[in-house]
Amino acid sequence: MISFLHTLLHEHATELVPFCNVRLHHITDSVHLLSTVESDQEGGYPVKIRTEQPKIDGFLSRQEEDVCYMKFDAPCTLHGKPFRTEPEADQGKEKKKQPEAMTVFLCIPVAPGRSRLIWAFPRSVDSWLDNIIPRWLYHIVTNTVFDSDSYLLHIEERNFATVGLDNWHKACYVPTSCDNMVITFRNWFRKYCKHQIGWATPMVNQLPPTPTKDQLMERYWSHVMQCTSCSAALKWMRAMEVALQVASVAIVGFLAVAKGSLVTSVVRRAAAVSAAVLCFAASRWLASFVEKSFYFQEYVHAYKLVPWRRQWISRTDAARWLSMSVSAVAAETPLPRAVNEEEMPATGEERFDWLDQWYPVAPVCDLDKRKPHGKMVMGLSIVAWFDGGGEWRVMDDACPHRLAPLSEGRVDDKGRLQCVYHGWCFDGRGSCQFIPQAPALGPPVHKNSKACVASYPSVVQNNILWFYPRSEPEYRDVLQRKRPPYFPDLDNPSFNTVFGVRDLYYGYDVLVENLMDPAHVPYAHKGLMPIQTKEDPGRYVHHLS
C-alpha cells in the first residue's frame, strides 16, 4: 500500500500541486511515506564532469555538456573558462560582443608542505571596474577565500601522510562525478610521478611541524610583502591611522589651550569635541581593518550563516521535486571513473621530468626593479632582479664568498647585483664583476669560476616572470626548444587582468587537488563566492526505511 501511494503521488503530482501547497505535509504525516524532502541550504548540487585519460603533460576536463572546461598542463598550470560564449544570430544588426572571462592558476611547488599560488583573472566583462577598484581590494576578498580552507587542507595533507599517498584511493571515498578531476589528477601523480616531486635540491621528504593557527593563516608575509598594491595600501592606511590620532589629540589640546577665549560658542565647542571623538574612533576602526585585512583574521566555519535567500524552500517547489523521477536524474549523472588499484608505473615507463619545466616566479607587477626579490621554487632559493641591460634575471640566492643571501643586497648604479655583506658585484649572467677586497693590480680573482653565481634561463611572458631550474651551459638556449605555457587572453588589450600571489602552508599536490574540486566551494567558502543556484531533484528524496 505504501509503495502504491508513493507511485501514485509521483505520477499525479502535476494535478496535486495546488493541493500540495496546503496539505502536502499533512498527507505525508498521515500515510507515513518512506520519503521526505530535504534541501541543501548552501547551494551545492551534483556537477557532471568528464575527464580525459591523463597523459604525461596533463589532461582536459569538461563540465555540464561543454558549458565550461578546465585544463591541467603539468606541472603548474590549471586554466579554464567558467562559461561558454555562443555567437548571437545575425539579424541584420551589429553583433553584440560576447563577454569573456578566464581563470589561470599557477601552482608552484616550494618545499615539502609548502606551495605558492599565482592567479590571474582576465576578463572583458565589467572590465571598467578594474580601472576604478584597486587591486588590494580584490585581494582582501581572495585572501578570505584562502583562509576559509587553509586549515582544512593543512590537516588533510597530514592525514594523507599518515595513511600514505600510495593508499590514497583506499583511504578516500570518492563516489560522485564531482570528484572526477581529483581522481584523474591523483592517477596522474601516481602513474608518472610515483606520488613524489622531483625537487631540484636534496630535500627531506617530511612535512614540517604544524604551526599555530595565526601563523597558518597570516597574510603579511605570505601575501602583503609580495604584493605591491597591498603593501602600498598598508603604508597609506598606517599613515592615515597616525594622522587621525594626531588630529584627535590636536583638537583636544586646542580646546584645552583656548580655555574659552577662542571657542566661546557652545555649539562650536561641541562640534570640536565631536570631531576629536570621530577622529579617534576612525583611527581605531582603521587599525582593526588593517589587522584583519593585512595581517590575520580568525575564520570559524560554525559562525558563517547561510545566506537568507537559501534558508527556506516553498512547498510548491517541494511538490515539484517529489513529482520527478529520482532514477531519471541519477541516470543523467555519469559515474566517476573507477581507480584501478593495480595501475602502477611499469618498468621503463615514461616518467615526468620535474626539472625540464618552466616555473613562474612572480607577476611582474609585483616586482620592484629597484631591489632584488628572494623566492623559493622547487626547493631552490633564488633571487630575481632587474639588471642594467633591462632584463629580469634569476640566480641562486647565495653569494659564493660566504653564502650570504643576495636577495638582501641591492642593485648598484651600474645595474649589478651587489652582496650587502662584503660588496661583491655580479652581472646578469652570474659572473663576478668586482671584489672590493681584491687589489686592483693583483691577480683577477673575480674571474675565477668559484666566484660565479649559478644563473638560470628566465623570460617574461604574459607579464609573469618564468625561470628554468637548470643552470648548466647546455640549457642556456632552452627557450628555443621549450617555452612556458602561453595564454593569449592575458596579453589581449581588451581584457583587464587582476594578478595575485599567496604562499600556502600545504603542499603542491593538495593545492592542485583543491582547485580541481568544485564541490567544496559552497561549503568551505560559504557566502564568499557567487554560487550558481541549480536544483537537482534526485538528491532531495531520502528513503527512511
Automatic annotation (TrEMBL):
Subcellular location: Membrane; Plastid, Chloroplast
Organism per entry: Oryza punctata
Any one GO molecular function term: metal ion binding
Swiss-Prot/TrEMBL keywords: 2Fe-2S, Chloroplast, Iron, Iron-sulfur, Membrane, Metal-binding, Oxidoreductase, Plastid, Transit peptide, Transmembrane, Transmembrane helix
Keyword Chloroplast included in the entry's annotation: yes
Pfam families assigned to the protein according to its UniProt record, in alphabetical order: PaO (PF08417), Rieske (PF00355)
PROSITE patterns from the UniProt entry: RIESKE
InterPro entries per record: Cholesterol_7-desaturase, PaO, Rieske_2Fe-2S, Rieske_2Fe-2S_sf
Keyword Disulfide bond listed: no
Protein name in the entry: Rieske domain-containing protein
